[in-house]
Specification:
The chain is of the alpha/beta class and about 290 residues long. The chain is built from 9 helices and 13 strands. The termini are far apart. The N terminus is likely disordered.
């Protein structure tokens, strides 16, 4: 009887150990799957979902033929080509500044490439890859009543697009300035042209381009606060895609990709007043 009990005990113990081993392998397998899931899901879907602007030339806009164009679009196409083998395998998700974080949080996009400035507050909500562009807050105003300092805006109306670093900067540093806020960038610029505000604050790179193409306006206050950087963003914790993007950006930097993209998309809009070195970042790591 002792031998029989011993036999059953050993058998049961063997089954328990086998089950534990199987559970460990399953957990290990699931961890690997989760690590690879972001890239795998994109490849399985067959398209890269990228949030971009539709009304912010020369960075991201829709042309008269309904095609997405601009500096950010060239980057999106190259990323899709290197990840999926075809630059056309992109689903462009049109966004406004204030919607960029929510699009990532809700898994509606894989990457945001919509002039997304890196800030401490945003880094708490999304993960930024390495930067590809320099930027600062600037102010554009009519030539006849130029704004050359933030102090001149006290008692005046300053137009800002919602969800931008310009809005945050003035709310924090100049709370006495009256802000006139608009959801869409196009609406904000139209408000400036219509005289619904005394000036407009936004990323200075965008303002240089806009003023160069809109006679009667000048960026007399080109820089406020510190220099910032623009970078691709992914959902918080998506290390798989973040690591891939950083590797991709290093490769593009070694090829001088962003300088070439500048020559193709930004230089015609900026004219000779701005150089590539003032805007482009090639392979910089934070």
């Amino acid at each position: 009887m002792k031998k029989i009990y011993l036999f059953f005990f050993v058998g049961i113990l063997t089954l328990v150990l086998a089950a534990c081993s199987g559970d460990n392998e399953a957990v290990s397998g699931n961890a690997t799957s989760e690590t690879d899931s972001a890239i795998d899901k994109i490849k399985e879907r067959g398209t890269l979902r990228v949030a971009v602007f539709s009304d912010k030339p020369p960075f991201g806009y829709v042309d008269s033929n309904g095609d997405n164009q601009g500096y950010d679009i060239l980057l999106a196409k190259r990323v899709a080509k290197d990840l999926l083998g075809d630059e056309s395998k992109i689903e462009y998700i049109i966004t406004e500044p204030q919607a960029r974080v929510d699009l990532l949080k809700s898994d509606k996009v894989d990457i945001v490439l919509a002039n997304f400035t890196v800030t401490p507050e945003r880094k708490e909500q999304v993960d930024f890859a390495n930067p590809y562009m320099k930027v600062a807050v600037g102010v554009v105003s009519p030539e006849g009543s130029q704004i050359t300092s933030a102090e001149q805006l006290e008692g005046k109306k300053l137009i800002v697009p919602k969800g931008t670093t310009a809005e945050t900067y003035f709310m924090k540093n100049h709370p006495d300035v009256e802000l006139v806020k608009y959801d869409q960038i196009t609406e904000a610029f139209e408000a400036l042209k219509d005289g619904r505000g005394d000036a407009l604050a936004q990323d200075n790179a965008l303002l240089f381009s806009w003023a160069n193409n809109n006679h009667g306006f000048v960026v007399a206050l080109p820089t406020l606060g510190e220099q910032d950087y623009i970078a691709p963003a992914v959902k918080k914790g998506n290390k798989d895609l973040l690591d891939w993007l950083n590797s991709e950006l290093e490769t593009l930097g070694s090829e001088q990709f962003f300088t070439q993209a500048y020559e193709e998309t930004l230089k015609p809009a900026f004219g000779d007043s701005i150089s590539a070195d003032e805007v482009v970042v090639e392979g910089k790591t934070e």
